[in-house]
């Protein structure tokens, strides 16, 4: 008889973990509360829905997230397979058609003979081996249960989503296509240039715009990597100029350099929809429309999805988890994804993959091998398990948490991939 495993959550981490475990021959019960109960940010019942950006960031092996993706591809990662299949032009980054990507992941999981999908909210543990991958949008009921079960304070931060516009009414007499430094095919982004006076007026109006209220009893804690554009504006106009509106490498067709640039990235395979890069926001929709249409080239643009802000929940993992994403006290419980304290699409999916491999080792009843922090997957797992619990916050992959850092990134990538390959051979022997 096949051994049974439960995966809770159909996001990136849960989808990847379910696929890996099913491919290993386990009978997987994938519990997902959507569409029975929706979250504040999801718009569909599809697995691996990309709520915020459609970018998986750099694909280069000189970048930590690029190496992380390469590690995942060694295990035939479902998320990487579908990301590569539904890739969109984005310079040196891996961006995907979000609808096609999520549909493809859903089709694979729902048709897999070893996966049974259960549409209901998960509320409490039992004796079954369970991987919790409920993501940052963990339901309020289960969040409170986790808080009580592990005896810790609830932790959270706020995350914001960027608006999406239709390409039809973009004014290309002003806007122009170009990638920063002409990476990719050199024309993967739409750029809306601003003069100094246009930028300063834009900055002033951002500060005056009305924001959607948060719950009165909660402090607004914003994750730095997804900071709303109005929060950047409040820190000074230079924050925006050195952030998403940086004009470097984006000269206009006549060769002149704009004072500031708003970039738009392709969001669907038909190239009919584009998202505003780095423009996560919690502005009220009326002001949001007014502000967006102040951008040169977007004066008449149609906004097909407004930006929103939502609460993200994560556990205090250093007190709860070991380096296998496994509960220290309850060995049959594992965590993965953003609820465990990793941040980002690729990081979430990779933690689901690594947790699934560790569940496989646990189910075999053997001593559990682990990746060192000289690999990207191992470094993330060790950060989650060993960071200072008093200052613990979700973390993107970066070279700062990798052990024995080398000056040459290519050498670091080679060593990392070699170790991951050895780990793969060991656990699949």
Summarize the structure.
With 429 residues, the chain is of the alpha/beta class. The chain has helices spanning 12-23, 64-73, 78-85, 98-111, 140-150, 196-208, 229-234, 237-241, 285-292, 317-320, 345-364, 376-386, 409-427; strands spanning 4-8, 27-31, 55-58, 87-88, 93-96, 115-118, 130-132, 155-160, 164-166, 176-177, 189-194, 260-266, 273-276, 303-305, 309-314, 333-335.
Determine the structural class based on helices, strands and strand pairing: alpha/beta
Gross morphology = globular
CATH level-1 class of the largest domain: Alpha Beta
Number of helices: 13
- List the helices and strands in order: EHEEHHEEHEEHEEEEHHHEEHEEHEHHH
Question: How would you sum up this structure, described in words?
Answer:
This protein is α/β, with parallel strands linked by helices. It folds into two domains: 4-158 and 311-427, FAD/NAD(P)-binding domain (3-Layer(bba) Sandwich); 164-307, Beta Barrel (Elongation Factor Tu (Ef-tu), domain 3). The protein is built from 13 helices and 16 strands. It has helices at 12-23, 64-73, 78-85, 98-111, 140-150, 196-208, 229-234, 237-241, 285-292, 317-320, 345-364, 376-386, 409-427, and strands at residues 4-8, 27-31, 55-58, 87-88, 93-96, 115-118, 130-132, 155-160, 164-166, 176-177, 189-194, 260-266, 273-276, 303-305, 309-314, 333-335. The strands form four sheets. A six-stranded antiparallel sheet has the order 10-11-12-13-9-14. A five-stranded parallel sheet has the order 6-2-1-7-16. The chain has a three-stranded antiparallel sheet with strand order 3-5-4. Helix 1 (12-23) links the parallel strand 1 (4-8) and strand 2. Helix 2 packs parallel to helix 13 (409-427).
